[in-house]
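2024-03-11 09:14:02 DEBUG pipeline.ingest accepted 1 chain
2024-03-11 09:14:02 DEBUG pipeline.ingest length=192
2024-03-11 09:14:03 DEBUG pipeline.predict start
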Amino acid sequence: ASLGLSAAPSPSASVLACSYTDAYAQLDPDSIRVQNQLLEFSPGVLEHETLLSASTDVVIATVCSIEGGSKQTTMTPYTYGTLSILKSVKGDLSSGQTIHFTRSGGIVPVDDYLRSLEPAQREAFASAAEKPAYIKQKVDGDIDIEVGKTYLIYLSDDEIYQARSSSYAILGHQGGLRAIRNSENLPVTPET
């Protein structure tokens, strides 16, 4: 069950032009209910050293697209899309590659969200006065990933983190996705 623009990812790393499409931007904000998840993290889990050791790749990349959101069984919804690699800090990815990513937290149709809940949770939700069209669920305090923005990103292609095949998982919630700006606030390129 997913909300998106494409049915299946292409190969995990290729050279493609950025489309700068955002499936979430096409949704009416009034049709989305936000469900923040409260998580307590172990000390140090979102720090650089911990994320670096858990990552197969660390890159500076621009978000080319957000293709949609999906929810599988009891997993938190996730967002999927593409990144254009500007610079690799760790790992085998190289400048100019476009890869598919997944990230914990996303927007999904309410019926997809409800199917993953326990019966008592579904009943409580059904008794609400207004039923939204979509649910946006993310960890409380996490940042939203944005199309066209450039980030320092901690990635893993390890199967234990993959929510979608042939993709890299962005690790560490807000710790694993750090926005980058240059002094003139111009787009970041490999040369800057």
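2024-03-11 09:14:41 DEBUG pipeline.report The radius of gyration is 17 Å.
2024-03-11 09:14:41 DEBUG pipeline.predict end
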